[in-house]
Specification:
Blueprint lengths: L7 H10 L6 E4 L4 H14 L3 E5 L19 H15 L5 E8 L5 H5 L4 H17 L4 E4 L14 H21 L6 E5 L10 H17 L7 E3 L6 E2 L2 E2 L5 H13 L3 E4 L7 H10 L3 E4 L1 H22 L10 H12 L15 H5 L2 H11 L7 H16 L6 H19 L5 H5 L1
Helix pairs in contact: 2-3, 2-15, 5-6, 6-7, 7-8, 9-15, 10-13, 10-14, 10-15, 11-13, 11-14
């Protein structure tokens, strides 16, 4: 059985105490394939596995559920633990809420829910998180569709953060649940790359209020390092000097510095993360893209091999997932600046753009009925045609290669044993 022998807050503190230069990878649970890949690597490389689930990915059914397997928090937690048992992972496993809080579901933001209603939904979502055994909650009240003039004011962010932590701490005690750790801040705070002075003021003011209320200090604070993911690229400009300053400030308060949107960063930049003091970094869309591309590669091999086989029905998987990815419209948030005016019709008529959109958004539609049926036929055909004995293993190995590049760059191998 996997274990949580130490909280993430204590894990970060021990990294500081022992001067361990490493960056903990937060893995977006984009699919069951990604979960298997991460847990197999965690087993073999002895690093803590952190799954970071957004509310769009995993959430209570009463709020619409999530696009990952249609799971709510309990189903997600149960599935993760079962996969861990299946692959023989008995190391440190942390279930983490990524960007929890009000208006963090696209539907809530688009419908401009009133503040009281949005905060109540956030609390109920967190409640189901802790009841399911989540170990880390990202408290992120920095979205507010009613703030037309720009980012949510820092005082309001602190006030809502305190309210949400106080709620969850109270429920943890009331229900006699294990303590949870917290992540605060966001890569979008104050509109982007905030100054070290504002960053430190936010930490100091928040910690002072937490102490007044006898509430836990956070394990991580999120800061902007200049990263920005669009399509299959990191189009931001990584600022090493600023990152180092923010990391030093966070360490002064015994809080880990967390970077979001580390997907697709060049290897030479990733390798500098541990020495800069970046304690954690999240990667998510990249793993969905890797799995989608591996699926399409299998589909292309199937189409070529099946051409003269009249006794087999082609899966048509590539066309099916292309249509579903285009229809879901989630590609709008990922388009590069020069493509922001494109319509669905424009993309459908451009083979290269359609391939790109499908790669980036394929994971959103894995649970669409037509995609699931076509994928099953693809798997059957791939095995019958001798292309791969286990199609799922092809996908798992592709995702493992992607995760492994971060494990190596972040000095993660053996970190669990070093910290414990």
């Amino acid at each position: 059985m996997p274990k949580t022998a130490v909280s993430l807050r204590d894990f970060v503190s021990r990294m500081y105490e022992k001067n361990i230069e490493a960056t903990i990878l937060g893995i977006g649970p984009m699919s069951k394939v990604v979960m298997i890949a991460a847990l197999e690597l965690g087993r073999d490389m002895d690093f803590p596995v952190l799954f970071i689930a957004s509310r769009n990915q995993i959430d209570s059914h009463k709020f619409g559920g999530g696009y990952v397997m249609g799971w709510d928090q309990k189903q997600f937690a149960d599935a993760i633990r079962q996969i861990a048992d299946d692959v023989g992972f008995d190391g440190l496993l942390y279930l983490c809420r990524d960007h929890g809080g009000p208006w963090q579901r696209d539907k809530e933001k688009n419908s401009k829910l009133p503040p009281d209603e949005a905060m109540e939904i956030a609390k109920q979502s967190y409640l189901e998180d802790i009841e399911a055994g989540f170990n880390l909650l990202h408290i992120d009240p920095t979205k507010d569709p009613h703030c037309a003039d720009g980012p949510v004011a820092m005082d309001m962010v602190i006030e809502r953060t305190l309210e949400l932590i106080e709620f969850t701490e109270g429920k943890v005690k009331e229900l006699n649940l294990p303590p949870v750790s917290y992540e605060i801040g966001t890569e979008e705070t104050a509109g982007g790359l905030i100054s070290p002075e504002a960053f430190e003021k936010f930490i100091a003011d928040l910690l002072a209020e937490l102490d007044k209320r006898n509430l836990s200090h956070p394990a991580f604070i999120v800061g902007q390092t200049g990263t920005l993911v669009k399509m299959d690229q990191n189009v931001g400009t990584f600022d090493a000097e600023s990152a180092k300053q923010l990391c030093e400030i966070a360490k002064k308060y015994n809080i880990g510095f967390k970077e979001h949107n580390a997907d697709y960063l060049p290897l030479d930049i990733l390798k500098h993360h541990p020495e800069l003091g970046i304690t954690g970094a999240n990667v998510a869309p990249e793993y969905g893209l890797v799995e989608t591309r591996a699926l399409i590669s299998l589909a292309e091999k199937e189409a070529e091999a099946i051409a003269n086989k009249k006794d087999l029905t082609p899966s048509g998987f590539k066309k099916v997932i292309q249509k579903a990815a285009l229809d879901c419209k989630r590609w709008k948030k990922w388009l590069l600046k020069e493509d922001e005016g494109l319509t669905g019709e424009d993309i459908a008529g451009n083979r290269e753009k359609l391939d790109d959109v499908t790669s980036v958004c394929g994971h959103y539609v894995f649970e669409v009925d037509e995609v699931k049926a076509s994928r099953k036929r693809l798997y059957d055909n791939v095995k019958t045609l001798g292309i791969a004995e286990s199609p799922e293993r092809v996908l798992v190995d592709a995702v493992k290669d992607s995760i492994m590049s971060y494990v190596n760059a972040f000095n993660m191998k053996g970190i669990s044993n070093k910290v414990l």
